[in-house]
Amino acid sequence: MAKLKKIEFVDFGPYKMVGKEIRTKIEKFNPIFPSKYPTIPSLWKQCFSDGTFDTLANMTEYCPTETPNGYEGYVRDFNKEDETFTYVAGFLMKVNTPVPDGYAAYYIPACTIAKTWIEGEEHNIYPNAHQLTMEAIHQNGYEVDWQNYFSCEVYTDQRFGVPQKRGQKVLILDFYIPIKQE
């Protein structure tokens, strides 16, 4: 099972999230009635195969030192009525980053974030990272900054990429949510 390994509250941004986006929703797999929405795994697969990440990685002058080797999955614009949201697979980049043709970009203002490390097997991390982070935010006397809400999965080489390439099953995903004092 996934567990919270670490939480800290840090100043963050401003940044620009640059990548490829989809409008999707979290759905359970149902082979009889497959989802009409594109899936997050299919977006990641596309971005690795079509050069999306190569293009961003080659824009080194726009990559902030805080996230030099991480891929990010960025969630925003949750719609309560149909439970859809925008998901961007890409890189957090400097605010002045030019946006390549065919890419989406979103400005993230300076804020304070809850930065958690969620540890577990990959298939357990994703469905639990948000809830574990939300619980830790409240337990530490903060609340989510809903006015500026986003969540961000950060795949660092040190805690995620390299251990995964070595065949380790237990990985650590960094997970960010903007917060404010209760």
TrEMBL record:
Start and end residues of each AraC effector-binding domain? 5-180
The name this protein goes by in its record: GyrI-like domain-containing protein
**What is the organism lineage in this UniProt record?**
Bacteria, Bacillati, Bacillota, Bacilli, Bacillales
Report the InterPro entries cross-referenced here: AraC_E-bd (IPR010499), GyrI-like (IPR029442), Reg_factor_effector_dom_sf (IPR011256)
Instruction: Name the SMART domains for this protein.
Output: AraC_E_bind
